[in-house]
Amino acid sequence: MDAKNRIAKRVAKELKDGNVINLGIGLPTLVANHVPDGINVVLQAEHGILGAGPAAEPGREDPDYINAGGFPITVRPGASFFDSATSFALIRGGHVDVTILGALQVDAEGNLANWMVPGKRVPGMGGAMDLVVGAKKVIVAMEHTAKGSPRIVKKCTYPLTAVNVVDMIVTEMGVIHVTDKGLVLTEIAPGLTADEVQAATEADLIISEDLKVMDIGN
Amino acid sequence: MDAKNRIAKRVAKELKDGNVINLGIGLPTLVANHVPDGINVVLQAEHGILGAGPAAEPGREDPDYINAGGFPITVRPGASFFDSATSFALIRGGHVDVTILGALQVDAEGNLANWMVPGKRVPGMGGAMDLVVGAKKVIVAMEHTAKGSPRIVKKCTYPLTAVNVVDMIVTEMGVIHVTDKGLVLTEIAPGLTADEVQAATEADLIISEDLKVMDIGN
Amino acid sequence: MSKVTTATEAVKAVRDGDTLLVGGFLTAGSPETLLEKLLTESTARGLTVVSNDTGTEHTNMIKIMKQGRVVKVHGSYIGANPVTGQMLIDDPDSVVLYPQGTLAEKIRAGGAGIAAFYTPVGVGTVVEKGKEKRTFDGKEYLLETALRGNVAFIKATIADKAGNCFMRGSTKNFGAIMARAADYVVAEAEKIVEVGELDPELVTVPGIFVDAVVPSEVKAPLKTYV
Amino acid sequence: MSKVTTATEAVKAVRDGDTLLVGGFLTAGSPETLLEKLLTESTARGLTVVSNDTGTEHTNMIKIMKQGRVVKVHGSYIGANPVTGQMLIDDPDSVVLYPQGTLAEKIRAGGAGIAAFYTPVGVGTVVEKGKEKRTFDGKEYLLETALRGNVAFIKATIADKAGNCFMRGSTKNFGAIMARAADYVVAEAEKIVEVGELDPELVTVPGIFVDAVVPSEVKAPLKTYV
What we know:
The complex is a heterotetramer, with two copies of chain A and two copies of chain C.
Chain A: H1 3-12, E1 20-23, E2 42-45, E3 49-55, E4 73-81, H2 84-92, E5 98-101, E6 105-107, E7 112-113, H3 128-134, E8 137-141, E9 145-146, E10 149-150, E11 152-153, E12 168-170, E13 174-179, E14 182-188, H4 194-199, E15 205-213
Parallel strand pairs in A: 1-2, 1-5, 5-8, 6-11, 8-12, 14-15
Antiparallel strand pairs in A: 2-3, 3-4, 6-7, 9-10, 12-13, 13-14
Helix pairs in contact in A: 2-3
Chain C: H1 7-10, E1 19-22, H2 32-41, E2 47-50, H3 61-66, E3 70-75, H4 82-90, E4 95-97, H5 100-112, E5 116-119, E6 133-136, E7 139-145, E8 149-160, E9 165-166, H6 175-178, E10 182-193, E11 212-215
Parallel strand pairs in C: 1-2, 1-8, 2-3, 3-4, 8-10, 10-11
Antiparallel strand pairs in C: 5-7, 6-7, 8-9
């Protein structure tokens, strides 16, 4: 399993039966492939779907059923559709249990920057600001560094998506919880040392007294 | 034709093809029976119907189709249903062309009092405040006096439904427009004099230079 | 994971001191089965009830109120329930009346994460008492804040076992928005179907908002009340 | 009274300097027929466009923008339209970006007679610049005002001749709310039926909001854009 799928698999273990979840573009979409048996989650797409399903089979695409990336999808039994105001009422109103998304930077206070890089072309924030403010739990799922440059920083320098919203960070190196005391490393990938994770992390990590090996087993 | 139906028939002449209208309880509901040929209006019911139709035939009542008075009704082709937040968004957002309702008092500034009588049991304002603030045109349809006591007053003394919202008053005695200069009597019932209308009216009436006989012809 | 249970079980969610949102407009969409069990099987008291009208003389809410279990009402038109009318006379603070659209929008805001909004309705009337007034583009508006409940009772025409609800005709009214604005939501349904049997385009209330589904067995009598 | 007309006729409603609301989320629900006629048959310029994304490289809005006819954009995600991206670089004030839910709620407010509302989204970010910040129950919110347009272009799956629209699946998105927030609304529909043929329970946009209905003849290419 590659790094991205290991991350996605670990994130999927956070999901509980009946959870309403929203998956960001890219790596987070892989989480859907790793949802444990016996756990049924309801995938929300922010432009107006509850109960989104897998990608449509080639040749059977339906242009009225797309995901938030414009990709043709299917829906599961029990799905429903609605407009964008209703959809974001749902999101802002705290009805999404878990939102999983990537980050450019996350910092020790749980601040998140994931929508623009200064000096680069600005794509817009889309629904990310709404999702992280509204969701009950925010999980950042990303590769630990950007070509060796830390993404988990003391203080975000990029424009923020939201303040103090991230609950948990899952990377190929480990699992980090955002707490009032700072970032706590609770799980670590097999074969790594806490020092190695700290070396790839700009923010100071508190090493959990109960540090476990990162759980991506069945 | 009795007084109430003469009032309703005159009000109905104000309606234009395609108008969205809301009819209050009581006398205003009679307006639906007098809509001129060739004029199609869309009846809105504030609890979530567009395209309300006549009362259901006895024995064919459908408990899921009621009007705002709890009465079983039918719907017309092209109807639609929605929740109360959507319905009042429609009302407040200015999408009702004409709202027709009764009054306890109307005054020279177009203030309306129609929801409570001090000292009597308070039924609540229901949707009346929303309707008169939101509708493009507000027509008060009522009998000119309450057992001889004027309803068209210099200044409302009952608790207001809304301030400066009434456009037009239609009674069995005549038609009065609310203008910046005050109340203008523009039409008068056959056989009455302007003095007689004034005598039944507490507020000062400006008699239109173009005073016409009240039009309840075909 | 079926959400289907009994009304007797479901009404246990209502605790002393709770705010209970009750869907329905007069008889349409009124959750009479749940209210009947709240009347007979529950002792929860000190309740705040949010309801457009608190029902009529012939529906169940008035019976619960006669038991003295409702201490506060937020509503709009209470003319069909004389007990609510009497509460207002006895203690003006015990019944808070709103323009119907303001009540609906407050509940929608409660479910939508909107703290407050500015509406033009009520300006210059008793409704503005104690509220902030503010001018936008030359027009005056009142600030109204969001309203939420601990529990909501709603009525569906059809529900699937995952809680997706279809509310037919004019029964959507307040139930459809209250379902989004309470911590625990119980839907009674005239018909309960398997997941997948309800057309996704006909879902009035998505199942994620609904915690329990019970069979609807009691109907409100069809009368004219205003 | 049929509202059916041609797209060529309908786009005449757009005048110089107008604010145009354009439904759609990427390709889903994008009114491509109307945009094509706006491109080829209209000379309206100085336009302000309100759109979630201003479409993609392969849809029609970008072509209208290349004609220099759009002077301002209100949107949320513009990553699939490089012309909008360039506008933002050339003149930061020409493109106003909002959190997607804030944009949707501003448009809903515009159609609902709500002057402004308080949302928690955007607090502590660039979005709060110039906006009132206020605390309710210990949490900070931003004041956002309503947004309306002169004309809205929306897309329906089925419309009847009175303008009642059914928008299927994920095509409802912004079109369903924009229809309520513009002075003149044009719906293009894949299928146009007689009044009475559309199930009242399937109406996404009631016909009273729609001024003109035209046949939808141009489809957005189905691609992935993000």
